[in-house]
Amino acid sequence: MWRVAITIAGLDSGGGAGIHADIKTFAAMGVHGATALTCVTAQNTYEVREAQCLSPQLVRAQIMAVWDDMGIDAGKTGMLGTREIIEEVASVVGKLGFPLVVDPVMVAKSGAPLISEDAVDVLKRRLLPVAKVVTPNKPEAEKLTGMKIASVNDAEKAAEFIHKEYGTEIVVVKGGHLEGGEAIDVVYYRGSFHKFSTPRLESRATHGTGCAFSAAIAAGLAKGLDPLEAIKTAKQFIYTAIKYGVAKGKGHWPVNPTAWVEIPAERWRAYEELRAALEAIRKNAALFAKAIPEVQSNLGYVIDPRYAVDVNDVVAVPGRIVNYMGEARPSGPPAFGASSHTARKILALVGKDPNARSAMNIKYSPELVERARALGYKIAVVDRRKEPEEAKKIEGGSMKWVVGEALSQTGGTAPDIIVDLGDWGKEPQITVVGRTPTEVVEKVLRLLS
Ligand SMILES: Nc1ncnc2c1ncn2[C@@H]1O[C@H](COP(=O)(O)OP(=O)(O)OP(=O)(O)O)[C@@H](O)[C@H]1O
Ligand SMILES: Cc1ncc(COP(=O)(O)O)c(N)n1
């Protein structure tokens, strides 16, 4: 069943925070996202240049238009701008009664105020009593309580105080601004404290974290999750969104709420593409058998380089592709992390050329190199005997050296084949490179035909 969540928040023209972060989060969490825009900001990752708020009446009209048509299962507020808008939102939410998550946004990451001074009191006295959840960060919790917060213990005291003083049912004091190896959020709910924690990421992508986090809680509530379950999921969600942040901008980079769905989708897509390419090998099994070297072949494919971290992000064939009685045969179905050698080669390639996402090693012969030349393939020839001792010593160093050597011959973009002439005890090989495993298999087929 489709659920509807509404964000009552401001627009960040840079798309990092505000309604952009919220709508991306709603979409990634599988709820329909509606919007009541409060203010427009001319903003990027390092500054807010201008801001203008809409009339409270127009904010109310947006909420009512959605309510009268689809209903609202849960909502969240972000930048509310003025005391008049806060009063209006408190009044309409109080009347409609849907569960509301209030992110008490006061100051942008870049330092600009997002709410007028006189509005904080209205937020405390009018909005917090009708909210189900409030998610202050450390400075916001300090402002709401007048306490100094330096530890988890302080955060617990502040959370309880906010509940008792303003009546919000659930208080989440976020630990993003606290010190320590873990980012610990403290929750006060029905007389008890709960802690939700993930490792603290050393990341530049923290613009919009509070927005996406509160939107994720609202999405969970819209789906009918128990509040603690919704907060737990939101915590995992925000960890992924920070880890795979959008590497863009001169200031605090935007968080990436769509990583939550994009990464699993990418992995599935890569798996399916590799499976299809292996099918093509099976169909030409006798031909491919001729190309299997002593060390056997592997064919690998890395997920979108924006998300690739290590060999576990490369799908390949466990047990490699073998020559079984004159037929090339994958030893098993594709799996992530199944190859170390091919995976590291692909990671080195994609680090230099984002299009070089797939590779397969085949047997070396001077005839195949000649054939590649005749086909007009871009060829790089690497002499392993020239590899410096230092490269051999570093983990994955050899592969990086081979790839660096190869790409220096082809102007920085990947060649179609890398001819590795081998070394003492190292079989010479050819690596066929392409954008997808299907393209690699087609290139190998042309070489062998
Ligand atoms: N570096 C980090 N590593 C891991 N988690 C983090 C990090 N920074 C923030 N978080 C988590 O992200 C969520 C948002 O917390 P934060 O304290 O940054 O909110 P905020 O300051 O309100 O964000 P914003 O400034 O975008 O409004 C919390 O769950 C927090 O623990
Ligand atoms: C429109 C709008 N809403 C919210 C924030 C807070 O996000 P951050 O603290 O990450 O800058 C923002 N900067 N702009």
TrEMBL record:
InterPro entries linked: Aldolase_II/adducin_N_sf, HMP/HMP-P_kinase_dom, PM/HMP-P_kinase-1, Ribokinase-like, ThiN
CC terms in the record's Gene Ontology section: cytosol
Highest taxon listed in the record's lineage: Archaea
Keywords, ordered alphabetically: ATP-binding, Kinase, Multifunctional enzyme, Nucleotide-binding, Thiamine biosynthesis, Transferase
Domain Pyridoxamine kinase/Phosphomethylpyrimidine kinase: 12-256
Pfam families, A to Z: Phos_pyr_kin, ThiN
Span of domain Thiamine-phosphate synthase ThiN: 273-445
Protein name per UniProt: Bifunctional thiamine biosynthesis protein ThiDN
Organism: Pyrobaculum aerophilum
